[in-house]
Every structure is written in structure tokens, then in C-alpha cells.
Amino acid sequence: MKDKIFGVLQRVGRSFMLPIALLPVAGLLLGIGSSFTNQTMLETYNLTGVIYEGGTLYTVLDIMNQCGSAVFNNLALLFAMGVAIGMAKKEKEVAALSGAIAYLVMNTAISAMITARGGVEAMAPNSTTSMLGITTLQMGVFGGIIVGLGVAALHNKFYKAQLPQVLSFFGGTRFVPIVSTAVFLVVGIAMFYIWPVVQTGIAALGNLVIRSGYAGTWIYGILERALIPFGLHHVFYIPFWQTSVGGTAIIDGVTVQGAQNIFFAELASKSTEVFSVSATRFMSGKFPFMIFGLPGAALAMYRTARPEKRKAAGGLLISAALTAMLTGITEPLEFTFLFIAPAMYAVHCVYAGLSYMLMHIFNVGVGMTFSGGLIDLTLFGALQGNAKTHWIWIVLVGIVYFVLYYVTFHFMIVKMDLKTPGREADDEETKLFTRSDFKAKTGVGPDGASQATGSSDPVSAMILRGLGGLANVSDVDCCATRLRVTVTDPGRISDALLRQSGASGVIHKGNGVQVVYGPQVAVIKSNLVDFMDTPEAAALDLSSPAGTAPTPEKEAEQKPSSGKQDTILSAHMNGTVVPMAEVQDDVFANCILGDGVAIEPSEGKLFAPADGVINNIFDTKHAIGIQADDGVEILLHIGINTVQLGGKHFEIHVNADQAVKKGDLLVSFDMDAIREAGYLCTTPMIVCNTDDYQSITALASGEIKAGSDLLEIKA
């Protein structure tokens, strides 16, 4: 249960990155535009003669200011779309559209309820706002996140929904915005009653945070850094930056919630004299350790490197240090700490927390988009003037931090003999480490694995085969009734297979083919796109010539000149023979990948059925392809739907392109664990180039030993 919750939180955190990634460009527009249209700033730098209200330059800058503000003012909508995209498994563009529609519907429903209950005057003070011209509750980005998560759940459940024939046009992806509209109309009505209670709780939490003072800021800074290895830091700081947990302020008559929102609202306001430190306490602490501290640590690693490796280490460390200073991107350095010595990272977290606390103590009012580099410091600190931001303290504390990080890390590296870049063994590469390196070593951190299920789909397999195999398909889309596909080689398309898959017609237009399925085509397209991400789809390309079934005319031409010879394949494992037609999977039972035979194993070992070369080892370790010396193309597939195990319980004993002999051990696997996970161990042996042969016949039934004659192939 803990692992499942952790995994969901990681996905949620990653889904926040899309809307967050919009902030730098919006912040750049807002920072430049507001800075050079602020009268105090213009007077401070004697620019009033060049930039003045009504002038062309002032107008352009004011436009930049307003455009940047537009992003921050509508972050909730962007989160609704961005989270839906991030959490959706497939057809992400549909999830984005549904998120936008659901957000508008929810807030419109809330607006109608406010009107019905007496209007804004009847609501609690500062509990309402205007969003996209809609009077609604003050939900901030929480409203967008709620919509995004809800729409994603609906999308993942219904994007392949099949409706009755009379309504089939509205099935599949078209059903998602429909069901989202209906659900969030109800959610909007419910939120009218629920959110005020939630808002009261959030306000109480925000007051607790404010009362925590400097100690609370220190703890915030420690936790913000400590959660980075787990990929959960976005989940942690978003409530502080974007909701009333991080504070509430009234700016130019408008109630603003969230530390970052407060800062940028003050930045956009021409009446701001001093930035609110109660908001920037959750941001300004990054600047000293990112611009000064981490470069000090980089210098310590350079100075302690071995002389013969110092040049190579220096190039890497200088680049990483400059990246941290300019942009606030610290991953190469921080994950090098984590990879080599977690104790270094623990010290870094404590120092980071102290940096946040010191900026709070010195009343530093510098905000940021999402990084703490020189770019943000210049835009949101220096350009605003020291009177408004007290940014000079960042430099003063930063100089101390440079020395502190250098001394501390130099001592730790030498005392603990840490193998930082340039101190590794002669035969080891000098490198900085990344998030993926840390993930590979520890298993900790965001999982970037594919979400493809790998479930078998005989109809999609037939369609893909009819289209010439995975390698022949360059684009897949659909209209109201037709699957629209762009292929590399139109000559590889089999109309017969496409019609067999349920198509009522096939239309060829150059490299484009339109396959007519009717109003249910949206579901067919989604299924096909999902299937194309599975190993079974890749296996189709093992077939000759390119995963397609030859037409009868071509078949008559190919078989006499195939050059193949009769051959016999031996049993690939110990167990009981299972005819292909009895395998409990339609793809195998219908011989869509090719004809062959299966074995229900009595031992968790897979052996080579013939001499040949390993031409394909699936990443999930459950399947292996062999090009036999006599021309037979063999696919050995351990279990049914075992691709979903992601390689668990399998051990590969061969390498790609390795020559093998009949009887060589290829894979060992834990049958009990696989069965306990809910999967069958039935293992088909498939002749992928079945169409090159006259017949494929099983020679045995019942119990069989590995190495015994099993399959006769007649050329």
C-alpha cells in the first residue's frame, strides 16, 4: 500500500511540472515589464526620461507585464489541463481538452450556486474571486488540481469506452469530455458546500505556518531539499507557493493566496513599495546556496581531485557550478552527493534550511519562478532595488556560504576519503551523477517506466499486421468513421487482413490509407495505439517480409522460391504440450503472430529449440527471438501477459547476437512467483515466418522433455 501511494504521489509531482515549466517565461515577461514600468525603479536608475507613461517603450513593457500576469492569474486553469495531461495514460490531448472544459463547468456551477444563495454579498469575506470572468470560490490552484486529477481518472477509465451501436459515435475519446462535463457539474454544486469547510482548515494551517516563525522556515527549507531524491518536492512546496497555506494578501483590492502568487501580484502592482517577506520566506532561501554554496562545494571537489584527473573533473564541475549559479538547476551536483555519500547531501539539506531561515531573518523579499539562480536574482532582486527587496543580503550571506560549503565539503571528502569526481579509480570514468544513476543504484526516485500495459489485443494485432507491421506505420489518427494511417511502404498493406479485422473498406491515397470501421473507430484507434507500445507489436516485425500476411497471389509466388528446408524444432522446456489453439490468449490461439505450439512448464527453464542466433531479447525478459541457422524465425514467449511483470522473476542467460546451440539455457524463471502474481506460465513457441512454409505440425502431445522433437516444419 505504501509503495502504491508513493508511486501515485510521484506521478502527481511529475504532473505539476508542465504548468510549473510555464512560469519562467511568464516570470521573465512580468519581471522585465513590471520593473521598467515601476515609477520607483525608474527614478532610482534615472530612466524617467527614456521610459515614461504613454511612450512606445513604456507601452511595450506594460504589454509584457500584463501578458506575464495573465499566466499567473490563470494558473488554476493551467493546472487543470497540465495535471490531466500528466496523469493520463494515453490520448493526453483529449485529457487536456476535458480538463479545460471540466474546470469551466465546475466554476460556472459554483457561480450559479453563489447567485442562487444571494450573491457575493451573502458569502464570507474574501471567499470569492473572479476567474475568466466567472464569479467563483477562492480555490486557487487547488481547484485546478482537483479538476486535473478527477479528469485524469475519468479519462483513464473511459477513453476506450464502447457505447451501444446507436451511440457509438460518442464512444472512446469523445466520451471523456462528455462524462467530465456531467461529473464536474455535480462536483461544482458539491464544492459550494464543501470548499468553505476545506478553506477554513487551510486558513488555520496557514496561520500555523505563519506563527512558526524562523524555525518553521528552517524546517521548510530542510524538507524542500530532502524530498528532491524522491521526486516529491513539487508536491511539498506547491501548497505553500500556490494556496493560502503560504499566506493571503489583498493587493490592489484583490485577494491573493499563495506565496508565489502574492509576490508576482506585488511585482505587477505599481503601488508596491516593499515585497512581503511573509511570502518570499518560501523562495528567497534558495539563492545563497544555489549561487554561492554549491559552487563552493564544486571547488572543494576540484581541489581534492587527483592531479592527473583534475583537468577532466574541472571541466565537469565548472559546467555544473555555472548551471547552478545562472539557472538554479542543481541536479548534477546534488545527485553526485547522493550517489557518492548521502552524508554530504544531509549536510547540504541542513545548510539549505539555514539559508531559508537567514533570508527570513534579514527580511529578504526576493521571489522566483522555480529556480534560485542569477537570472531570477537579477530580475526579481537587483532590478527592483534594495529598498524593496533587501537583495544585498543574498550576496553577503552567499559569500559566507561559499566559504562554508568549501571548507565543509573539503573536510568531508578528505576525512572520509569520498570518491568524488577525480578521486575514483584509474579504470573508472570521471563523471557527475544524475537522477537516473541514483535511481538505478538505490531504486529511490520517480519511476520513468512506460505505462503500457502490454495486454494482448488480437484485433489490434491483426490491424497492425495488415498495415505492414510496426516499422511500416509512421502516424495513426482517426476521423468520425475512418482510421487514418500514414505508412512508409504502401505495398506492404494487406487489405484482406484489414477487412478481416472488421473494416468495411480500405482506401489507398499514396502513403496514406483510410480504413473504414464506422463510428466506433475512436475506440479502435486508442486500442491500436496502446498495442503499438507492447512487445507483441514489435514481435510482429519478426515476420517475413515485414509483419504482413501475403495475399494469395504473392503466396503462390513466394513459396516455391522460398529456399527454405524441412526442419524439426525440439521442445523448449520440460512440461506438457499445449496445442496453440488451446492457449488462453487470442493472439496466440489465432496464430496472429505465427503458428507453433506451447508447453505448460514443469520447470522454470527455457532452452533453445534449435541452433541459431539470438536476434531479440525483450526488455521485460519474458520473451526471446531466435534466427535459426536453417532460416526459421522463432519467438519464445514465457507466460501469458507476463510483460506486465516488468522483468520480475526472470533471469536471462544469453546476450543479443549471441550464437546458441540446441539445448542451451536461455532463461530461468520463478514459476511459483509468476503464478502467485496471477499469470499463467504457458509458453508458446511461435514460427514468426509461418507464411514461408507449407505446414507446421506438432509431433508430440502430453508430457515432454526438453530437447525432444516437438515441431515439424515443411518447406
User: How large, in whole angstroms, is the Cα Rg?
Assistant: 31 Å
Strand content: 5-15%
Q: What distance separates the N and C termini?
A: 54 Å
Number of separate helices: 27
Q: State the secondary-structure class.
A: alpha+beta
Mean pLDDT level: 83
Low-confidence parts, pLDDT < 50 over ≥5 residues? 447-455, 542-562
Walk across the major sheet and give the strand order.
17-13-14-15-19-11-10-21
Tell me the domain tally: 4
Work out the helicity level: 40-55%
- Largest sheet geometry: 8 strands, antiparallel
Give the overall shape, derived from the CA principal axes: globular
**How many runs of DSSP E, i.e. beta strands?**
22
Structure notes:
The chain is of the alpha+beta class and 715 residues long. The chain has four domains: 11-214, no CATH class; 262-442, no CATH class; 458-554, Glucose permease domain IIB (Gyrase A, domain 2); 564-714, Glucose Permease (Domain IIA), CATH 2.70.70.10. It contains 27 helices and 22 strands. Strand 7 (505-509) and strand 8 form a beta hairpin. Helix 6 crosses helix 8 (175-211), helix 9 runs antiparallel to helix 16 and helix 13 (286-303) packs parallel to helix 19 (392-416). It starts with a helix and ends with a strand.
